[in-house]
Structures are given as C-alpha cells and as structure tokens.
Design a protein that fits this description.
The complex is a heterodimer. Chain A is mainly alpha-helical. Chain A is built from eleven helices and two strands. In chain A, helix 1 packs parallel to helix 5, helix 1 crosses helix 9 and helix 2 packs across helix 8. Chain B has two domains: 175 residues, Response regulator (Rossmann fold, 3-Layer(aba) Sandwich); 170 residues, Response regulator (Rossmann fold, 3-Layer(aba) Sandwich). In chain B, the strands form two sheets. Chain B has a seven-stranded mixed beta sheet with strand order 7-6-8-9-10-11-12, with helices on both faces. The longest helix of chain B has 21 residues. Chain B is globular and about 80 Å long. The chains are: A mainly alpha, B alpha/beta. At the A-B interface, helix 1 of A face helix 3, strand 7, helix 8, helix 9 and helix 10 of B.
Chain lengths: 289, 430
C-alpha cells in the first residue's frame, strides 16, 4: 500500500468528516429538541450556499466573512417555517409530519431553480484554491476552515444548551413539554428559536461548502441523505454524536478509495450504517428514543 | 328544505335530473358531428415532444437543450411554419427526464399521449435507450438531438434517428486529434489516467476511448482509470489517487459539476501534467465553467462535435440565444436547435404527420447548412447522421471570456492557428 496516499486520504477523510458533522448538526438539534425530522434540511443548506453565493457575486464579500449574515438569514427562514408550519404539526404522528416538510423542501428547491437557474455555479473564493503542504501531503485550506468551524459551532451550541438560560429552557421543553409550560416557559417560542438555530447551522454549513463544491438547486437531497446517515450513526438528537458520526463516515469513505472505486462510496457509508444499526440500534452515542 | 314529495310535485328528482341532463348532453354532442365546422383561421399546430434533463444533476445542460429546441421551433414559426401544411405552426410539448431513464420514458409516453407526432431529446444515452424502445412500440419517429452511445442505433429500430455523432465517431476523432497534436508538437505523454462519470455515457465513452487508444499504436499507457458517480461533490480522494499514479496526461469524460471540482483539486494537490485532453464530454466549454474556473481552464484540449461559428444558421441562432438567455449557443444547445430544424425539414417534405410519411422523409434528409461542424445532415440505414464530425477546441486566453474557446482543428474551421501543448502547470499561471 502506498503510505503517502494513505496519509493523504486519511487527512482528507478527517476534514471531510468534520464537514459531514456540520451537515448533520442542524438535523440532530431539531430532532433532539422537538422530535421533528426536518426533511427540508438539505434544501436549507443549499439556500445557505445560494445566499452566500449572492453576497459574493453582488458585493464581492467572501463566504467566510458573510458567514454570520448567511446564518442570520437562514435563522429567519427557520423561525418563519417553525412558527407557520411546524408548530401546527408538532403533535401529529411522525408519518404525517413528513408531508409538509418534504413539500417545503421541494418548494425551496424549485425556488432556487427559479431564482438562480440550473447552472452549476462555483465562483472563485479568496481561499478556495489555497493549500498547505506538509511533506508529501496536502491540506486543503477551505476544508480545514470548514472542519475547524464545524467543531467550534458544535461546541458552542453544546455549551449554549448546557449553560445559558435559553438553552436550559430549550432542554426543559424537549424533556417535558407540559412541565415546561407549567413553569412558565413559552414552549412555542422556544420551539421557534430551536428550529431557527438548527436552520442557522445549515446556513453556516452552506456558506462553508460554497468554496468546496459547485452549487446547483438539486444538491439538497444528497445533503439530506448524508445528514441522515451521520445523525443515525451518532445517535438521533445527540450533538456530539453527529460530529463523531460525521468523522467516522468521512474517514471511512475517504480511506475506502484505497481499495474500492469511488462508485462504491455509498456502499461503504450505508454498510457501516447497517452494521451499527444491528449492534447499536440507537446510534453509537445513544440518541433520543 | 324540500322534501321528497315537493320534488315529485315539480316532476323531477335527483335521479331523473341526471337522466335528463345525460340524454341532453348526448344529444347535443351527437348533433355537433353533423354540423360543418366554420372556416378555420389557421391549421392546428403540429405537436413535437422534447424530453430533456431539465432538472436533476444534468439540469444545466438540459435547460440549454430545451432552450435550443424552443428557439428553433420559434424560428420555424416566425418563418411561416410548415408551408406544405398550410403554414401549420410547431408546438413544442416539454418533458423533463429528471436525468433518469425511467422518468424519461414516462415523460415521452405522456407527450405521445398528448399528441406529439415526433420526439426529440434527450441528451443522456441511457434515457435515449428507454425512449427509443417506446417510440418503436408507439411508431413515433424519434430524432435524438444529443446522445452518443453506439448501441442506441444498433438494435435495428426503424423509428430512431440521431443528429449527433456516435460514440465511435467521437472516440475516433479523439485519437485522430491526439495523434495530430503529439506529432505536431513532437512530445509524447507516456502515462495517462482516464476519469469518467459512471453513467451509461461516461462508461461507454471512456471504455471505447481506452480500447481505441490501445489499437492506435500511440505508446500511451493507461495507468489508472477512475470512475465516480454522476453528481459527485468531492473528488479529493480520487485526485490523491491520480497524483499517486504520476500521469503525464489526463483524459476526463466528465460533466459540468465534476470538471470544476477535478480541475481545482488538481491545482490544490499540485498534480504535474502535460495537459488535460478531454476525449469528448461536456464540462469544459460551458460559459459558466469558463467563467468560474478562470485561468485554470486555459489550454484544456477538447475533442467535441462543436458549433460552426461561420454558418449563417449558427450566427442567427446564436444572436437569438444571446438575446434571450445572455449566453452563447454552445454545442449541446446548437445540436438541440439542429434537431428541431431537421424535424421541421422532414415535416415540410412529408406534408403530413403520418408516421410512414415522416419516416420516408427522414430517410431522405439532406439538411445542408447545420449550425454545427461537419457536412450536411444525412441519415444512414441505421439512422445515424453521416455528416456529423468532431473538432478539436482549446480554451485560450482572451479578454472576453465568451470568446476563449477556439477551434484549432480541422484547419478549414480553425479560429486559432496555434495549439498550446504541453500546457503550463495549473499553479504557474499568475
């Protein structure tokens, strides 16, 4: 086996894994708090990509600088979605929650097609082509940035939920909705904020992904699929689980290139998923049941 | 509220109402058969079905194809429609294959049910296969504007025609131009990597190219072949493998999204190459790709059935396309445009929408000045266009990004007389 190649693939797998974790973070957060599966998750990431694409092409501001603005825009979108749609369906059986959220995904996807056209767009970004060379290995700077920020975001949200008052209210509402209402927590408002926060992480993910891959309106499904694998792997609703799930998936897919053609990537990721589901049905880190 | 008795007093209840109105409706519709229709202002439009990958991973190309089809129909209509049929206008029925064969077939079926007398499309060979079988069953002529896989026209189908070049013709052109470039420049790459998308076209095209290259006598060894799924988002692991194979040249069979990822990744991982030579696939000449890749796209050589910029039909079509959509008419859209022109030409000569008459007319096609490189469009017994040919194009520096793509061979069509090969390394371009 070629040691240089293995090292290179290992580094790339780790970095890609961080990005996968970030892709799964929002889904895990929303599920963890409300038990709602956001089927429009991937399309929200694509919206984040397009918003940062727009800011870049119209004002020349790089995705890393517009990150917070993009997150804020998608936060607002998430707030709107929760207050108008999800709050109405939150007590419905899961199968019935699927339809409005899948529809929302389709609406977002086709809106993107309408606004930005079908083209693959991948404008040059400031760090888009930068790489650090360590010996024979290459570390892609935009991937490294996305990796670092993914870990940072996960930790921030984790701490926010653990330490802040709002975070405690969110956890209280997640734990026992009736109890939370009784002690005076405005559960609907808390839900709005939680969904919006989950949405904001997808927006940030979108901005970080823009330098890495061309954006098209139809990317969303793939992101949703990755997010599902990552979140189920780590345990539904477990934030740190999503990060580790992402890292495992990224490493496995990348290292599989040593033996398997790229067309078999999904075989690796779903293979791992099936094995873990067999032995740890609630995910590696035990999620919400 | 009325009770039953009241209703009976009036002599009509719900049931009798339904009976009476049913009889009245039947009577009315029967009488209308006997009534002669008044003078018609214009003949009914002729419906043509266009199935393209308007959404899904190939949406970028699919929308371009659809626009090419639409613009050509508009052009025919603006010139007075089909004159041999009282100036009947063409009406394009639009279908979306979503880049999937099974959906393409359903859509084609729907368009035929809605009255399409001929079909065009569908860009993807896999989709073309599915539609060709359907058209054979339904006896509807199918003129493929773009789809290259040889096998589509090797099944003895009567109703399938192809304006585009076959994969064999495409591969033959690639090897011919590769020989020309290496001879002219007196350099010979020794080690090569072939990459391709793992769809019907990508596999067939790259497989054919590898086979043909092996027989060509060129001393180029394929040291690695990398296949990846259509619509992939990350090629970093694949490029790491390319780098480990230490190639002199890459032969990519790609699509617009992956070509951008591949080139940027080659840059980041500093893969040293004499150049990129595309044996024939999209991803290297679309206006968006050229704009987004900047200097990295320079000097890529592409063997492709290209537009003929000096053709008056191309000039006219390009002007209309630029006006409508703000970008130039690239080769796929130009072939889509040609497809509808060829259909209209057959309708004009057939003077009828009957399948037999259309088949006869299509077999006698001699469409003189297509907006694409090559001779007149003529179909052989299989339905392949014997006039189709490829050109060699290279992306060369030009202040106007829309003028960066230059034909470098064949000489009679050339827009630039110099070919840059080997190309400067990707990271040495300022």
């Amino acid at each position: 086996m070629n040691a240089d190649l293995a090292l290179q693939l290992g580094i790339q797998g780790l970095l890609t894994g961080g990005i996968y974790g970030l892709i799964g973070l929002g889904l895990s957060l929303i599920f963890g708090v409300m038990g709602v599966i956001n089927f429009a998750h991937g399309q929200m990431i694509v919206m984040g990509m397009y918003v940062s694409f727009w800011i870049l092409t119209l004002f020349g501001i790089d995705p890393y600088l517009s990150l917070m603005v993009v997150a804020a825009v998608i936060f607002a979108l998430g707030y709107l979605v929760q207050s108008t749609i999800v709050n109405r369906i939150i007590d419905y059986p899961e199968a019935m929650q699927v339809v409005p959220l899948v529809s929302l995904g389709l609406i977002l996807e086709n809106m993107a097609l309408l606004f930005w056209g079908p083209d693959h767009r991948s404008p040059e970004t400031a760090l888009g082509l930068d790489a650090i060379r360590v010996g024979s290995a290459t570390i892609d700077v935009s991937r490294l940035m996305a990796f670092g920020l993914a870990i940072l975001f996960t930790l921030c949200i984790f701490l926010f939920l653990k330490k802040s008052n709002l975070g405690k209210s969110i956890r209280a509402a997640a734990d026992n909705r009736t109890g939370a209402i009784l002690v005076g927590i405005k559960v609907n408002r808390i839900n709005n904020i939680s969904f919006a926060l989950g949405a904001a992480t997808t927006g940030a993910a979108g901005a970080l992904l823009l330098p890495l891959m061309p954006v098209t309106p139809h990317l969303g499904h793939d992101f949703t699929l990755i997010a599902f694998v990552v979140v189920i792997l780590g345990g539904m609703g477990n934030l740190l689980g999503a990060l580790f799930g992402g890292l495992i998936l990224g490493l496995a897919e990348s290292l599989s290139a040593l033996w398997l053609p790229a067309t078999m990537k999904h075989l690796v990721s779903f293979g791992i998923l099936v094995v873990i589901m067999l032995f740890k049905p609630h995910g590696l880190f035990g999620g919400k049941r | 509220m009325m009770d039953r008795k009241d209703q009976n007093v009036k002599g009509m209840n719900r049931r009798t109402f339904i009976k009476v109105s049913g009889a009245a409706g039947l009577g009315l519709s029967l009488t209308s058969f006997g009534v002669p229709t008044l003078l018609r202002a214009e003949p009914a439009p002729i419906k043509i079905g266009s199935v393209q990958p308007a959404t899904g991973p190939l949406a970028m190309i699919g929308q371009g194809q659809r626009r090419g089809n639409l613009l050509a129909a508009e052009y025919i209509n603006s010139m007075g429609g089909i004159k041999s049929m009282d100036g009947a206008k063409l009406k394009l029925l639009l279908g979306d294959s979503e880049s999937k064969p099974e959906v393409g077939r359903q859509e084609a079926d729907r368009l035929i049910k809605e009255g399409a007398v001929m079909l065009t499309g569908p860009f993807q060979s896999g989709v073309a296969m599915a539609i060709a079988t359907l058209c054979e069953q339904r006896q509807v002529p199918f003129v493929m504007d773009v789809a290259a896989l040889d096998a589509i026209t090797r099944k003895g189908y009567k109703y399938t025609f192809r304006v585009f070049i076959t994969a064999k013709g495409l591969v033959g052109g690639a090897v011919k131009y590769l020989k020309m470039v290496t001879k002219e420049k007196k350099v010979m790459p020794k080690r090569a990597v072939v990459t391709n998308t793992a769809d019907a076209f990508g596999k067939g095209m790259s497989g054919g190219f590898i086979k043909f290259l092996g027989k060509s006598g060129l001393p180029i060894e394929i040291v690695e072949r990398i296949q990846y799924p259509l619509g992939i988002h990350d090629l970093s692991a694949e490029v790491a493998r390319i780098k480990a194979a230490k190639p002199d040249i890459i032969f990519p069979v790609s699509r617009p999204g992956d070509s951008v990822i591949l080139t940027r990744e080659l840059y980041k991982q500093r893969v040293e190459l004499m150049g990129i030579f595309c044996p024939g696939s999209p991803g290297w000449y679309e206006p968006e790709v050229i704009k987004d890749l900047g200097d990295l796209i320079l000097y890529v050589l592409i063997n492709v059935p290209w537009i003929n910029p000096s053709s008056p039909v191309y000039k006219q079509a390009n002007k209309a396309f630029l006006k409508a959509y703000g970008k130039y008419l690239d080769t796929n859209s130009a072939y889509a445009y040609t497809g509808v022109l060829v259909l209209a030409d057959a309708l004009e000569r057939a003077g009828s929408t009957k399948p037999e008459a259309l088949l006869k007319a299509l077999h006698k096609t001699y469409y003189k000045d297509p907006p694409v490189l090559g001779g007149p469009v003529q179909f052989n017994e299989r339905g392949d266009n014997i006039g189709a040919m490829t050109g060699l194009i290279q992306v060369q520096p030009d202040p106007d990004p829309l003028k960066r793509v230059k034909i470098v061979a064949p000489k009679e069509f050339a827009q630039s007389d110099k070919i840059v090969f080997p190309a400067p390394q990707l990271w040495e371009r300022g």
